[in-house]
Input
Amino acid sequence: MVETVTSSELAELISMTDVDLVDVRDEREWLSGHVPGSRNVPLETLRADPDAYLARTKPIVFICARGVRSLTAAKLAERLGFASIYNLDGGSSAWAKAGRPLVLEAIASAA
Output
């Protein structure tokens, strides 16, 4: 079952449990600001080979910009038998709006 968590609930979950934070936005979106500790696995990449990118050993929290793509990813993981699946309600936008930090990465320009 996919559980929806708020930004506050996610912050509490992160502080209490070792979770896998999977941001399913494209790389450019992820670089422009992501939840600390999250890793980038774009939704299309995840769809192509979920077992290559998801571990069954700890809870997984899916994140995107607003919560739509991450819910799609969470439902995919659920269909594949993953347990302890979470979706961040409102995505990274809600996380930032709640005053929580985002990590910004420099976007390399094409040479």
About this structure: The radius of gyration is 13 Å. The mean pLDDT is 94. The domain at 2-97 is CATH 3.40.250.10 (Oxidized Rhodanese; domain 1).
